[in-house]
## 1
Amino acid sequence: MKMKLRILLLVISMMTLLSLSAQNSDNPWQIYAGFNFVDLYPTGADENAPFGPQGKFLEDPFNVSERWNFGGPTISLSRSIFKGFSIGVDYSMSIIKKIEGNSLGNYNYYAASLNLKQTFNTSRKINPFINVGYGISDISYKNFKLYSKNGSNTLRAGFGFEIKLSDRGGFSINTNYLHTLESTGVRHFRHQAGMYYLFGGKDSDKDGVPDKKDACPDQAGFVEFSGCPDTDGDGIPDNQDNCPDEAGSAEMNGCPDQDADGVTDKDDACPDQAGLAEFNGCPDSDGDSVIDGEDKCPEQSGDPQNQGCPWTDTDGDSVTDNIDACPDQPGTVENNGCPELSYEVVTSINELSTQINFAAGSSKIQGKIVKDTLDEIKNLLDENPKGNLIIEGHTSSDGDDEKNLILSKERAKAVKEYLIGIGVDPDRLKTEGYGEEKPLSDNDTMEGRILNRRVQFRAEF
């Protein structure tokens, strides 16, 4: 009855282990197989030990040189529970041969137990562990029996090392002291060495990477990519690859960039031309912020509002037509392209100037009408203090061309001096002579020649 109770306890312990569902490792189950070395020295035994009547052989029962009894197998099964802690069962067999003074022959040895084990530094190559257990052990003479009268409840404690050879398995060595709780048992050491294999982790995609470590558990992949595939073979796993179907570079997050402009082809509006990121990979050769494909003047910096072309400057006053308030009349930048004296003022002055007439071959200011006209021009300039005037002198075609040019300059100078004389700032007046180059009327008639002997005004810019 006692033997049956012990066997029942061992079976219940195994069933308890196999029913556990908790886990904290990728492959929670471990199976181990190896060899054992039973060492009966120097633990000793009591008088009921199986080595002789009344402990006859126990005064010096085992010679040190003969204490090791090599045997096997040793097998175990365990399951990880939490952070290196596991529970399992093991079973060992051996034959005890080396007993000094023994004339009875060999003894059969077996031990089985339920064990608790704590492994440290599970992430390293060499991981130490400690273990404790409870079970039975038996050393029987002659025939092997599952449980003989020499069996005993046994406590065990020990330590060892696991040496990882791969993620799934490795080599394990350990030593244990087995302490029997009954006089029929024999206290002893048991040393073990063997191989272990880990299994039981869920691997949905069957790629050899357990789901717990698999970044892509539903897609078969590679161990080096944490279980993720690399469809385009560019060395970047699909879960980190922005272009999983096109081989690319790590710098471009797995996408190609055939023009090497730093913009991936999928985002590049001009994938065959190196360009700029701010223009979606398209070039801007003239740097005017209009991409070449939309620039009407790609080699000439222009205005985006003018399709990339520069604006014209019809009047040549350095104020482009798009912002020139007087595009056909030279002006100043400060006055938005218009002359400081407005077109209207200059027009009024020129209307007055039709009253300024000269006698043939003369530059003399004479006559009340001419002087009154110049007084009115002076008043207009006083009312418009900004801006300068250019006084143009002209002649009819009578006489020599060279003399006419000189005469035209003298007429302009005479008007300037008169205006200065009545109070006009001299810095506001300049003169030019054109001779007979710019007739206002036909020189073939008297009336036309009279009109051509004149001065005209224009704004200086």
## 2
Amino acid sequence: MPPEGFPRELLQAAASERLNYFRSYTIAHPHLKAVSDALWRAIQEPAGSALILVIGPTGVGKTTLRLRMEQELRQRFLTAGAAEPGRLPVVGFEAVAPDAGNFSWKEYYRRALRALEEPLIDDKIDYATPQRFRNSAGEFTVPHRVGNPELRQAMEQALRHRRPAAVLIDEAQHVTKMASGRRLADQLDCLKSLASLTGCVHVLIGTYELLPCRNLSAQLSRRSIDLHFPRYQAHNPHDVSAFQRVIFSFQRHLPLPQEPELGCDWEYYYTQSIGCVGILKDWFTRALAEALAQEAPTLTRADLARHAWSLDQCEKMAQDALDGEAVLAEQPEAMERLRTLLGVAATPSVDTGSPRNRPPLRRAQGRRRVGVRRPRRDAVGRGGTN
């Protein structure tokens, strides 16, 4: 069934209201739904994993995924009817890019505590070491400057009491920004220990810049789950069909007097968006804003071309996406390398079920006791003949 369009009474509304309608409109397209379902299952049963990494290209819809998951977790929490007024079903926020090139854990803790609705963030005291904050009379005093240890302690306590199902961190690739000489594993170990101590799984949502965080150590590999949020591929017929339906859904929900005809140029829209729904929607939103400002009856390809990203920008985004996809793709020889590393024999190419095809057994060559000679045939008869 074709998707229903926007409410027709919206044509009488102001241009800002019509633009906000399209900006807030989201499509549950196949890739978004598949990753959302996989993330939900991983949150429900992490099976010992402390971190979940959701990785995808820029503009694929990762922020939409986070907002969708937050809404679903809140809805399920309310439906369950749990009488826990102090509990938060989910905590979500964005990791801020550092100003000076180094990721700020202090700012990270502050934003997390605000998302946890924690009061008096600037007045936290680490009661584990109370002697640091007593005056000469033995009374507690608030430190002049709250540091990382106090904020970290406050976050741990808030997560234990609030007990959210997950902590969703958007733009998590900013965690990898650090000073030279500091190990990237230290950044991830900090999040892993925070998740383990509080029993709250952390979901890191970011671009392919998160790829180096996947296998920094054996411990991180075991305690993390990788989820790939892919773009739509032009060589896949199912992806092409899904992307065409996305274009048609956007076309139906553009609040204009005359519905534009965009489906016939799907290859152009795919190329300029590299198959990412988020890029496509941002592109259409900018074109819609101009059309509403000029009171245009519809959108044409020429209107959209004025707001498309340049070819250099599209090529850069496409190259980054292809590089990330190549890293995530498992090579055929990876299994043989793993078997060789573990000392497992290569997969036989012939049937070894019958005795005829079984390899000959080799006897174990053990050391003989002293005085026991090696077995050999003795010469018998005359002339030393056998």
